[in-house]
Amino acid sequence: MNKWKVAFFALAGTVLFAILLVVFLATRPVDGVDVAKRSAGESESKGNVLVVQTTTKELESISKKYLKDAAKGSPLPLDFTIGDDIQLRSTLTVFYTEIPISMNFDPIVDDKGNIILKQTGMNVGLLNIPPETTMKIMRDSVEFPSWITVNPNKAEIYIDLSRINIASGSRVRAKELDLPKDKILLEIIVPGE
After folding, report:
1. Rounded to an integer, what distance in angstroms lies between the CA atom of residue 128 and that of residue 7?
2. How far apart are the C-alpha atoms of 1 and 44, rounded to whole Å?
3. Per-residue b/e over 53-66, b at no fewer than 16 CB within 10 Å?
4. ∠ CA 148-150-152 to the nearest 5 degrees?
5. How many Å apart are CA 1 and CA 69, to the nearest integer?
6. Is the dihedral of CA 175, 177, 183, 184 positive or negative?
7. If DSSP codes are grouped into helix, strand and coil, which group holds residue 108?
8. Exposed, middle or buried by CB within 10 Å (0-12, 13-18, 19+), for 105?
9. Whole-angstrom Cα distance, residue 127 to residue 110?
10. Residues 142, 59, 69, 81: is their CA dihedral positive or negative?
């Protein structure tokens, strides 16, 4: 057999193997994620409580500042807007082609005052990729702060507000998030003397 034929078949086999590997990694089941639990010794924050009402645009601006600070100056590979829902946008580079990704989430306040973003919609260019796979790719490619947990199996993002450090040891807790009515209530817990 001619050496060029051998080289051609070796190259074709390598390309085919690479494509099959990408398809396998993109479609394999995702691992479970445990949401951060409060330790037994850690009690509910005590102190003075301030209730703050804000708008979606103000919350978007504050959220972007805290994410930028948590990213330690490195640019975040995603952008988001807060309107009637929360929309995350990014791009995924596949074979030197940028594919736009957009995901929509509805926020839910849990009993601890933290926020759960439940995925309601997703667009990945013209591709048909399962939401769990897209969230797994996002979790693995974006370095989120420790207070954000991406759970692909449940198609949700958990934001543990109790772990965000704000001035003087104060803590934040969500009370109500009604985005369509532009009503957002947050509790700021300031430690007492």
Report:
1. 34
2. 75
3. eeebeebbeeeeee
4. 170
5. 61
6. positive
7. strand
8. buried
9. 33
10. positive
* Nearest by Cα to 171 from 34, 38, 50: 50
Across 33-37, 39-43, 51-55, 165-169, the highest mean pLDDT is recorded for 51-55
Amino acid at 192: G
Assigned token pair, 118: 């439940």
**Where would I find the beta strands (DSSP E) of 55-182?**
78-82, 86-94, 97-109, 115-124, 148-151, 156-159, 171-178
Contact 80, 60 (CB under 8 A): yes
Name the residue type at position 66. Y
How is residue 25 written in tokens?
């990694």
Q: What letter represents residue 13's amino acid?
A: G
Nearest 5°: phi and psi at 45?
A: -60, 130
What residue spans of the chain are helical by DSSP H?
3-27, 56-70, 131-141
Q: What is the mean pLDDT of the chain?
A: 75
pLDDT single digits (tens) 102-122 = 888 888 888 888 888 888 887
Mind listing the pLDDT tens digit for each residue in 28-46?
665 555 555 544 434 455 6
- ∠ CA 69-53-104 to the nearest 5 degrees? 60
Residue 89: half-sphere exposure toward Cβ, Cα within 13 Å: 9
Report the amino acid identity of residue 67. L
